[in-house]
Amino acid sequence: MQQFFPFAGDLKTISPLSLAYVGDGVYELMIRERLIGAGNYPPKKLHTAAVALAKAPAQAAAAARILPLLTEEEQAVFRRGRNAHPARRVPQNASVEEYHQATALECLFGWLYLKGDGERLRALFREAVKEEADR
Q1: Which intervals hold domain RNase III (predicted)?
Q2: Using a CB cutoff of 8 Å and minimum separation of 24, what contacts does 45-52 make?
């Protein structure tokens, strides 16, 4: 995944919630690309499917699928995201643990994106949504 504006700073200085902010957008875009690639569906159906894959419980399940595949460095980034305490409330459709796992996943995806590691990002995304594709 190619960046529009390559990041040249030190990723260790970026807060985990800022990484999650970027990762949320990256993950959403990857979901949308996957859905469009699966067929030409009406926008409402695409939106419903995207929301189902992007909500915290689905992201927490995706995180559980990729966690065993992470390198030590990726695990450290994931933990930073999981341990971050966002100021907003947990969505009604998610538990606190699911919300923290989802934030960790987004943090990792934001970090990989800003790092410019599109190949790893795509590989982890494929594993993250693998079970969803099998349905």
Answers
A1: 18-116
A2: none
The two tokens of residue 60 are 């927490």
For residue 135, pLDDT over 60 is answered with no
Is there a domain that residue 2 lies in? Answer: no
Q: Output DSSP code: residue 67.
A: G
Cβ count within 10 A of residue 87: 5
- The CA-based angle 95-100-106, given to 5 degrees, is 125
User: Does 117 qualify as catalytic in the annotation?
Assistant: no
Residue 123 amino acid letter: A
CATH of the domain at 34: 1.10.1520.10
- DSSP secondary structure code for residue 13 in this structure: G
| pLDDT, mean of residues 87-93 | 70
Domain that holds residue 100: 12-134
Q: Look at residues 79, 64, 65 and name the one whose alpha carbon lies nearest to residue 111.
A: 79
- Of the residues 10, 24, 117, 134, only one is catalytic, namely 24
In a domain, 4, yes or no: no
